[in-house]
Write a structure and sequence with these properties.
It is built from 5 helices and 24 strands. It is mainly beta and 397 residues long.
Amino acid sequence: MTNQRTKTTRRSVGMSAAAAALTLTLSLLWPGVANAQLSCANGQPPVTGLSGVPSCPDANTTAEMVDGSIYRQTPEIYATEGPIYDIDVANQEVHVMGKVLKIPVVVNYGGFAGTTMNISGSGIRGNDSEARSEMDAENIDRMLDTNAVFRDAAGGLNGMPDQTGAIRSVFSSDTSLAKDSVADAKINANYRNIVKACYSRHAAFLPANFLERALGADGLREPPYYGGTFKTAGHRYTLENGTCPNGATCRPTVLIPDIEVVLELAENVTEGTVTSAFGEDLAAGCPPSLTIDDQMLVMNPDPRFGRDILGIVGQEISGDLFTSLDGTIIAAIGHMRGEHVNFMQEILTDLIDPNDVVHIVLDRGQITETNTADGTFGGDILSVRAIGAIDKPQHIV
């Protein structure tokens, strides 16, 4: 799991007779919460659970809940990677694999200023990388299928106009039907409508029987699917005395995913040569879409998750460049319905946005500080060695 820490610097460069400002965006591949715990801030060695998850238990770490209650971290570690069975919005709790996980607003690691906890999606770059999502403790109701197909869809309360609604539940298809038949029906209708709308643009690049494969001979097929996977790791926390609000019922201990918290409807990866690519057609009801071999890939319409195109150094690429993917090799991660339709949450490409700033990404680095005369650190000579990549848009000289 890696995040990016960005540093921006400006300097003048000559451009004909005038001086212009050049923005260099330096993105260091920096350990995220899980990997950051490989070196503990409190000086103690990390603890590794049986599942291989590294942890830095710290009695100074606390978590703040939506209702204002405070919990303190204990050394007990836990992990999950399995299906969700229930979402308790009122208490910000998710039931998974016999565990009840509580999502806090912020975690104060080591007693320092709080870090907002967001529920991420799965990223394309591997090593448990994380993709953008729109869910946290204060907006945990966005996890609910009914909000993903009605309230937040198509530019609703929290959604984007081009994300017309979920095509897959956070639960398995049979559990989705049992929990909310109305939302489940809308999910399946969304799937059928998008497949039909997008197929017409790609028909020349797909098998003649593609629609029958995707929707059945009668056009009403609803491919079944497993429930989403909640990948989490964290610690058990205990309630701080006197912090439970009057009249509230607070659990004496809770499991909090303070190391990792990722919700993936699926982790379906496709890599290959794009044979056709078309931009968004809102009137027709089709998001940006492309084909690879016998598969149609559509940009994610689910407002709970992101839909991002990543360039040659992992930078975000403008959606205006989507059609330039035609004929290129890409890798995409998303969630599928059946064998032939993938709804992409991230696309990894070798694109460079000609209108963007310069991006420099380092994947290895060494910082050396010269010793002072008495043998201690703190000298004024600092050397930095780094290996990475750079993209340079053509308009920058």
